[in-house]
Each structure stands twice: as structure tokens, then as C-alpha cells.
Amino acid sequence: MSNRLSRRDFTKITAVASASSAFSSVHVLGANNRIRLGFIAVGNRGDQVLDAFLTHKDAEVVAICDLYQPYMDFAAKKIGSSPKQLKDYRRLLEMKDIDAVVINTPDHWHALQTIHACQAGKDVYVEKPLSLCVTEGRKMVDAARQHQRVIQVGIQRRSAHFCREAAEFVRSGGIGKITAVRAFHIQNEWPKGIGNPPDETEPSDFDWDNWLGPAPKVPYNKNRSFYRFRWFYDYSGGQLTNFGVHYMDTIHWALGHDAPLAVTAMGGKLAIEDNREIPDTLEVLWMFPGGTLVTFSQFNASAPPAGLRNGEIEFRGTKGTLYLQNNGYEVVPDALTANEILARKPINRANERGWRMGAKPMIEPKKVEGQGDMAAQATASHTRNFLDCIRSRQQCNCDIEIGHRSTSSTLIGNIAYKTKSYLEWDGKNERFTNSPTANKYLTYEYRAPYKLPS
Ligand SMILES: NC(=O)c1ccc[n+]([C@@H]2O[C@H](COP(=O)([O-])OP(=O)(O)OC[C@H]3O[C@@H](n4cnc5c(N)ncnc54)[C@H](O)[C@@H]3O)[C@@H](O)[C@H]2O)c1
After folding, report:
1. Quick one: how far is CA 202 from the chain centroid?
2. Banded model confidence at residue 361, pLDDT cuts 50, 70, 90
3. Cα of 113 to ligand 1 centre, how many Å?
4. What pLDDT, in 10s, does the model give residues 51-68?
5. Are 214 and 10 in contact, with CB atoms under 8 Å apart?
6. In terms of Cα–Cα distance, which of 272, 293, 257 is closest to 408?
């Protein structure tokens, strides 16, 4: 049986989804009911999120869906209770005995599957980045609100205790006024990167057309599919949205703003000669309200800094710096204010260099370090929060509006890079005010018969 999607099929699923929505939105779970989950995609991240949900005894995975049978076999074995196996997510959404779905597909599928799930009356845990373009994200928010769905976006740091503490400390003025934030992700892929495999015929057991979904039809290339899709713009915003959205989300949280005023970017494929489309080196700058300059550096063709940290955010305040890493944070006070420095009498160069030594810091130093696998712990808390919110009908720690805003800030960085521009952003209306050309990148044309619901 073919899994390909005909126009008639597509209309039918939307109709079924809308009909069941009226039924499901009034269904409230009791404390003793187990929450029944359907997984859409059980690849790399799907497997990690599955591990997290399997630790929660008040949930059960009743169905799984993936285009790749070996991944489904692996997941089914792990789940153990013979979940229904499907290759078409629309069949999974039709199942009346599913309360919520967990979407772990590549980014270009997130919008359609989330909106269809909302229409079908399912609550949704959807992986980051929320969408491939800003318009998709806004429509996802609208669908969630219209169908009164609980949505958790998979930016799991929102549920990490140390991130909350750090964000609240910065936000409450703990290191003074924040004038600059520097975030970076470094993963040295030099010299060969992801290689340069030729286009080829798709494997006989893999439905490439269905994997592409709304994306343009192109010949199968190994690098464009499993995991490596993140190096291609048809399916991903590259490492800026892949890793950058985690950082940007914490930056929004700590600054108390959910959109920048302006953005610009520069970069390129400077050292790696593989078939990736995204830059191997990229620098993005945003100006945030209140006067905070934020930069994100994506360095995939250079060595990491000393200490082997490959990712970090530095919040630079007038009283000190907060370094946030994936397992904790550190507050380093600045010893003197600029005025105090100027008031001192420099005697010679040596003294000048020693200005800060021995001076009284304006804030206390602090170091918080987590134990064990912090990423897995954050995902466990994040999935727990989703299940709790399904019962309480409260908004999740990373509600869809939050996930959309954080994703949008990274997506517009890519637009600045692609259009080589300095762009002014109207966060309220989600439009650029100084570039009609850049506004065209806020949406993209789906391949027929796929259609972004309006
Ligand atoms: N929160 C995090 O820390 C984190 C970490 C890694 C990945 N992710 C996100 O998870 C998503 C998936 O990334 P990945 O690394 O797991 O990719 P992957 O290629 O390993 O897995 C994607 C899976 O989706 C399946 N798939 C594709 N189209 C489908 C469809 N129409 N229906 C059903 N299944 C389909 C594929 O067969 C594959 O098994 C991405 O959006 C990525 O950004 C999040």
C-alpha cells in the first residue's frame, strides 16, 4: 500500500481532524487515568524523548509512527507493550484512544503535524525548533489556541532548575544592566564535514517522497535525510535554529523580551567542502529592547576555546558576568565600576593592569554545577511538566507562544544572513519594517498537494 498523499486524502484527514476536535476538547482526564501517547517519529531525538516519557508511570505509549521500519522495531521493543505501528501520522491522529502526540520529525514537518494534531483534539509535545518559517509558527500558535490544546515545545532547558535560577537572577538585576550577551556553539567539523555523497536512488524500504512532505521534490541524497537534514535549508534552519534556539530561548527568558528590534548576520562556508547548504561559520547580531546587544556564533570549522566548552551563553552585566553552560552556571563579579576606575590614580602601566585586583566586588560570586546527564534530566522534567499540564490544562513551561518567539528570533537571523542585510523587526506584527525582500522569507510555498491550513 502506498503512503503517498493524494489531494483527496489530505482534505479527508483535515475534515476528520476537525470533526474529532469538537469531541476531544471537552475530554478531561481524571487523576487515575493514564495519558495515552502517540509518537510521530522515533529516530535520534524521538528515542531520547521516548526514554524520558517511559519513566513516567502515568503515561503509556499506545502507538508509534515512523517512515523507517527499523526505528519502529527498536522503539516497539523498548516500549514492550506492542504499540500500534503506523507509517502514516494521519492514521495515528484518527485514533480515538490517543490523548496526546509527541512530534520528533525533522523541522519541515512540525507545522503540518502540529496543526493537524490540534485539529484532531490532541495535545502536543513538539520538538524544537518549532517551525521552518515564522508564518508557520504563528499558524501553529493560532491552531493551538483555537482548539484549546496544551502544547510543550521541546526546548527542555525551560524545565531545568539551574536555567530557571540563572535566568531569574539575570532578569532581577543580579549582574546589573545587561548590555551584551554572547552565545556560541562550536563543533569543529573540519576538514570533511558531512562529506559529499552523490544523489542516488532512494533505498527500497524508505519513502523519500513522504519524508520530503511539503519540501521541494529533489533527488534522494543520504545527507539530506536522517539526522543530516539539519545542514540543508529545505528541512532546517541549520545550526542557528538547531542549537541556537536553546540559547535564544534562555536569552529571551533572562532579558524579559520575546523579540529583538533588529538583526544582522555574516558568515559562509569558509573551510569545509561538503555538500551542506548552511554556513560552517556564522555570526548573528541582534539588538534587543532596553539596549542589549546579543550575538550568536556558530563555529563549525574552528577549534573550541580552552576548557573544551562547546557551547555557552555569557550574560555581560554592568556588575558582573553570568556564564551559563549546559550543566550549570557561574556568576563572576566585576570588581569596579567604570567611575571607580576613573577615580583611581593610575601610577604606572603595571598598576593599570592590576586595577581590578583587590577591589571590592559589587556582587557575590556564585557557582552552581549539576551532577550527571543534565540534558536527560531536563528532558525528564520537561516531559513531566507536559503530562501535568495535560491534566491541569495550564500552559506548559515552554508553551507554543514562547517556543514560537524563540524560534522566530533565530529564523530572522537566517533571513539577515541570506539577504545580507541589517533588518528592523516589528515583533508585534512579525514583519520587517525596512525590507519587503526579507518579508518574503517569512513564509514558503508548500509542495502540492500539501497546504498549510489557514
Ligand atoms: N530538544 C533537543 O535537544 C533536540 C535534540 C535533537 C533533535 N531535536 C529535534 O528533533 C527533531 C528530529 O531530529 P532527529 O535528530 O531525531 O532526526 P532523525 O532524522 O534522527 O529522526 C527523524 C525521524 O523522523 C522520521 N520521519 C520523517 N518524516 C516523517 C513523517 N512524515 N512521518 C513519520 N516519521 C517521519 C524519520 O524517519 C526519522 O526516524 C528535529 O526537529 C530536531 O531539531 C531536538
Report:
1. 29
2. confident
3. 13
4. 999 999 999 999 999 999
5. no
6. 257
The C-alpha cell at 243 is 542549537
Alpha helices in 147-207 (DSSP H): 161-171
Nearest CA, atom 28, ligand 1: 211
What spacing in Å lies between the alpha carbon of 226 and ligand 1's midpoint?
8
Q: Where do we find the cell 533572562?
A: 254
By DSSP bridging, strand 100-103 and strand 84-86 are unpaired
Domains and CATH numbers, the chain: 7-159+378-400 (3.40.50.720), 161-371+407-442 (3.30.360.10)
Q: Which three cell numbers stand for residue 180?
A: 551584551
The strand pairing partners of 288, in sequence order, are: 292
Whole-prediction pTM value? 0.92
Enumerate residues 6+ apart whose C-beta is below 8 A from 194.
Answer: 223, 228, 231, 274, 275, 276
Cross-strand partners of 431: 426
Using alpha carbons, select from 79, 89, 70 the residue that is nearest to residue 51. Answer: 79
Ligand 1 atom closest to the Cα of residue 110 is: 41
